[in-house]
Write a structure and sequence with these properties.
The protein is an alpha+beta fold. The protein is built from 6 helices and 9 strands, in the order ααααααβββββββββ. Helix 4 crosses helix 6. It is globular, with a radius of gyration of 24 Å. The chain starts with a helix and ends with a strand.
Length: about 240
């Protein structure tokens, strides 16, 4: 089998990889392939919300002739490896974006210098044109800082920082003394009591975690940030 054929075969297994439907051999093959293939890591990132979306469907338990659909984070193989691969892919995309932005700024700077010279030649010793009222400066983004309160029997401590975005909210976690069975979930609860997963991560030897997640919930509608274990047990709550 050629490298191209092998790539296409493994590419088609990504859905089963996320849903926990592959055997150990195929999972290990795909783990190794994802470590080397940027295209498949990008596709994995695109598909990563699918398991949660399927789980949230009202009739998810009745798909496939009444059989329950295993899409919980605990059912996915190599959850820590998936997060590592996605973090690597996002870092690569972020680096590429920064490089492209730096090139754009360099071109823009040259253009502005040239434009400034032309403008100076046109408006020297003349009255500047009236462009109407000055535009108001854009307000800076207001960060929201919330401290975690541990649930009974939990020693979890730390905080969550929320950054409002046009599409929802970015959640940055810095927590320690995490106990229980991973993978652990960060949930955003809105003021109606509904929750949406913002991040998931595996067990950490030190019981500490620093990571960033995201939710489509608007910052103004966030009631609290929750951290749970894989069984849904709440370990800590940060009320906003």
């Amino acid at each position: 089998m050629s490298d191209l054929d092998d790539h296409q075969t493994l590419h088609r297994l990504l859905g089963g990889y996320l849903l926990g439907g592959l055997d150990e051999t195929d999972t290990e093959r795909l783990d190794a392939h994802l470590a080397e293939c940027a295209e498949c890591r990008t596709e994995l990132d695109r598909l990563s919300p699918v398991p949660e979306m399927l789980q949230r469907m009202p009739d998810a338990r009745h798909l496939g002739g009444g059989a329950a659909l295993a899409v919980s984070p605990a059912a996915r193989p190599s959850s820590q490896n998936i997060e590592t691969l996605l973090s690597r892919m996002r870092a690569e995309k972020f680096k590429e974006t920064r490089v492209n932005r730096a090139r754009w700024l360099a071109v823009a700077a040259v253009t502005l210098v040239a434009a400034a010279g032309v403008t100076y030649g046109i408006f020297t010793n003349t009255t500047p044109p009236d462009d109407g009222p000055l535009a108001q400066p854009t307000a800076s983004v207001q960060l929201i800082d919330a401290r975690f309160q541990p649930a009974p029997g939990s020693g979890l401590t730390g905080d969550a920082k929320l950054t409002p975005k046009a599409w929802g909210v970015e959640v940055s976690l810095d927590v320690s003394r995490i106990s229980g069975n991973g993978p652990f979930l960060c949930l955003v609860r809105n003021r109606s009591g509904q929750t949406e997963q913002a991040a998931v991560w595996g067990d950490t030897p030190t019981g500490e975690a620093k990571l960033t997640g995201a939710s489509s919930t608007k910052a103004t509608d966030v009631d609290a940030i929750l951290i749970t274990d894989r069984d849904g047990k709440v370990l800590g709550t940060a009320t906003v």
